[in-house]
Amino acid sequence: MYTTDSAALEAMVVEAIDGLPPALRERIDNLDIGVEETASGADARLAGAGTLLGLYRGVPLTARTSGYGLTLPDRIVIFQRPLEQLATDEAHLRALVRRTVLHEIAHHFGIGDARLREIDAY
Fold first, then answer.
1. CATH class as words, domain 6-118
2. C-beta of residue 114 within 8 angstroms of C-beta of residue 86
3. What gap in Å lies between CA 17 and CA 110, rounded to an integer?
4. Is the pTM higher than 0.70?
5. Would you say residue 48 has pLDDT above 80?
6. pLDDT exceeds cutoff 70 at 81
7. Is the pLDDT of residue 98 over 80?
8. Residue 63 CB contacts under 8 Å (≥ 6 apart), including other chains
């Protein structure tokens, strides 16, 4: 287990986003990314027996129609405590945060868990 403060974890999230290729980063649309300590009860149930490290809430780019407009931003939430519990040191935490951010951004682009497993991105 490796713990840090919320500002340091938020900086890791920003670093992960900044590390995206510019062409991909430019396609992100109407998306807010934040950090919360842990998942709420309702969100935690989504993970079932697993550990929820992050969550995408919104309408993927591939599912948006002309009716999508004037809506609140989609939201990616990164959960700090579960990531810290898995991390062995700062470098490992940074890698876990990056992987989680990329995973949730993939959902924003319409890539589901089955496809992520298929392309060995899990």
1. alpha beta
2. no
3. 17
4. yes
5. no
6. yes
7. yes
8. 110
